[in-house]
Amino acid sequence: GSCGPGYASPLDAMKGPREEILYVPCIYRNTGRKIPDFLATVDVDPTSPCYSQVIHRLPMPNLGDELHRSGWNVCSSCHGDPTKSRNFLILPSLISSRIYVVDVGTDPRAPRLHKVVNPEDVFWKCGLGYPHTSHCLGSGEIMISTLGDPAGNGKGGFILLDGKTFEIKGTWEKGDEVPPMGYDFWYQPRHNVLISTEWGIPKFLGYGFDPNDLGKGRYGRRLNVWDWSTHRYIQAIDVGEDSVPLEIRFLHNPDASEGFVGCTISSAIHRFYKTEDGAWAAQKVIQVPSKKVEGWFLPEMP
C-alpha cells in the first residue's frame, strides 16, 4: 500500500536513495551587510551539470532574522499516513523570533515563502522567544524549542504549531517549572522521555561570545529531562559549569535508552542513559584538548 513521508525505520532511511538537493540557511546578520538571510538550494546530484552549485536563493522579507535551524512539517512519525506530505520547511529565526514556513513541494528546486509567523504571536501566545530547533511530531504538530522569553531572559520552553495551518497553538510544556535555558532537544516516546539542552541567555549571547560572561551562570550546563506524556519537566542532569551542552541525539534505534550530547565550551561529549531506577544520568566519554591559538580573545580555543 501507499505510505506517508519518511521511512519506516532509521535502517530503511540509510538504504534509501541519495538526496539530489540540499536546503541551506545562509545568514547575513552581524556581517556588516544589510541584506536579508536567504535559503540556498544546492544541487548535490553528481550526474547534474550544476553539481555542487547554488541553483536558487530565497531571500527572507526582513533584515536581521538569523536563520539557524530548519525542520520538516511532517516526519517519519507519520510514515503510515499517506495523506501527509513532507512539502514545507520550517525556519525559526533565532534573533527576530519570526518563524518562516517555506513551500518546497510545489517546486523543490525553487522554494517559495508560504507563511510568516510574526514575533508578537510567539511572544503573546507562548511567552517565549528566540526559537531554535524545529521537530515534527507524530501528532502532526510542529514543536520548536526556545532559548528565552520575549525580554531575552533564559527560558527553555517549546512552541507548538498546527501542522496544516502553521498557526501557533500554544506551548508544549505543562506545569510551572521550566528550565532556565534551552537549545536543542530529542525525544524517545518508547521510553516516555524528551531531553533538551542549554546554550545560554539570549540577551548575553545575541551579539556573540564574550568570555566575560563565563562563570556568571549565563551559559548552559544541564541536560533537562521531560516526561513525554505529561509534558512536565522532571529532572536536570548537570554536566559542568559553562559546559554548554548543545546538539543531542538518541541512538537511531527507537528502542534505545541512550544517546550522546556534544558540549561546546568544555569540548566534551557525554553519553546519557536511563538508569535501573528509571531516572537518567550522563557520563563524559570523550574529552577534546583545547588548542593554543593566536588572534582570538583567549589564548586557548575549546
From TrEMBL:
Stated membrane topology is: Peripheral membrane protein
Record localization: Nucleus; Cytoplasm, Cytosol; Membrane
Q: What is its EC number?
A: 1.8.3.4
Q: Where is the signal peptide?
A: none
Q: What superkingdom does the record give?
A: Eukaryota
Reactions performed catalytically? methanethiol + O2 + H2O = hydrogen sulfide + formaldehyde + H2O2 + H(+)
- Show the coiled coil region(s): none
Q: Which family does it belong to?
A: Belongs to the selenium-binding protein family.
- Main role? Catalyzes the oxidation of methanethiol, an organosulfur compound known to be produced in substantial amounts by gut bacteria. Selenium-binding protein which may be involved in the sensing of reactive xenobiotics in the cytoplasm. May be involved in intra-Golgi protein transport.
Q: What is this protein called?
A: Methanethiol oxidase
Q: Which gene encodes it?
A: Selenbp1b
